[in-house]
Amino acid sequence: MAGSIRPLDVLLWTFRRSEKDIVKLYNSLSPLMTIATGGRMLNFGYWSDSAKTPLEAQRMLCAVVGELAELASARIVIDVGSGLGAPAAYWKSCYKSLDVACVNINFSQLQDSKDARASLVSATSTALPFASGSVDRVVALESAQHFRPLERFVHESARVLAAGGLLVIAIPVLKLQKKRKRLLQFLSLGILSVTWSSEHYAPEYVESAIKGAGLSIEACRYIGPHVYGPLADYYLENRENLKPRILAAYPVYLEKMLYRSILKMKQLSDRGDIEYILLKARKTQTR
Q1: How far is the C-alpha of 201 from the C-alpha of 223, rounded, in Å?
Q2: What pLDDT is attached to residue 17?
Q3: Which of 57, 77, 116, 138 is deepest in the core (most CB within 10 A)?
């Protein structure tokens, strides 16, 4: 249960970051996102003039990713790290002829994704159970930051994509790695070193992994200003309304940790130390 989360659990999930740890992390903390947003999407969202609430911003990010992935001309899409299936359901509502497969190592989330109107596949990102050249699109919407090693996921994506197919990744990234040594990087992140439980990939590393798999990068968009700052502002402005609902499910220390993390996230985003990128890469030949 959410209320039984111990600080030690959070530390172990953060520093080990194995697949089992990531599953436990999401099982324990995903309800926090749904409490705050009122929906079933598990992403930070793309905030714009037409998206001023978390749920609107999350749908906007799905729309932006769907357009970038050219889903209107796709037939078979695999959504890797599919969460609760809400993005798949959104894309299915927009693109009626689309076949979507939700791929997730988290069996509990897959069981809770039955309204996604998609195939549900229990598998790891680094061993995709699809035939070579069999899919049109591979999408990782705010999930690839957990994939380890990232290169293996990208090579698997290149393998299963048909010629001309697209890999699209929406991923939070860290821009500190080229500026600071690892210890200074850890200290600069502050509380996010504990609460941002991902691999902290740098943009250059993600691009290198994609190119190393023989894919051609067609677009790379930095959208951090549309993600972190507006999300932080929303939480800070609405904290007093959200706090009772969070405390009904989680211990006090966790809400305080969330609050401090939001403040740090905004600071690092304003400073340009963290970013969020959308990458689109095409398979130009069979492998």
Answers
A1: 16
A2: 63
A3: 138
Backbone angles phi, psi at 238, to 5 degrees: -115, 15
Written as six digits, the tokens of 91 are: 């894309």
> 151: closest CA among 211, 101, 80, 219?
211
Residue 25 lies in a domain: yes
Residue 239 belongs to domain spanning: 2-282
- With a cut of 70, say whether residue 124 has pLDDT above it: yes
Confirm whether 218 is domain-assigned. Answer: yes
Q: Are the C-beta atoms of 76 and 106 separated by less than 8 Å?
A: no
Angle in degrees, 0-180, between the axes of helices 86-94 and 54-68, rounded to the nearest 10: 60
| pLDDT tens per residue across span 100-122 | 999 999 988 988 888 788 999 99
Neighbours of 216 (CB within 10 A): 12
What is d(CA 15, CA 7) in angstroms, rounded to the nearest whole number?
13
- Single-letter amino acid, residue 236: L
CATH code for position 40: 3.40.50.150
Judge contact between 83 and 143, C-beta under 8 A. yes
Q: What's the whole-number mean pLDDT along residues 255-272?
A: 91
pLDDT confidence bin for 182, thresholds 50/70/90: low
Percent of the chain with pLDDT strictly greater than 70: 85
In a domain, 287, yes or no: no
- The answer to whether 92 and 117 have CB atoms below 8 angstroms apart is yes
Q: What are 129-157's pLDDT values in tens digits?
A: 999 999 999 999 999 999 989 999 999 99
- Asked if the structure places residue 60 within a domain, the reply is yes
- Which residues have CB under 8 Å from 249's CB, separation 6+? 2, 3, 31, 32, 35
The size of the chain, in residues, is: 287
Q: Indicate the Cα dihedral angle 7, 9, 15, 21, nearest 10°.
A: -150
The amino acid present at 63, given as its one-letter code, is A
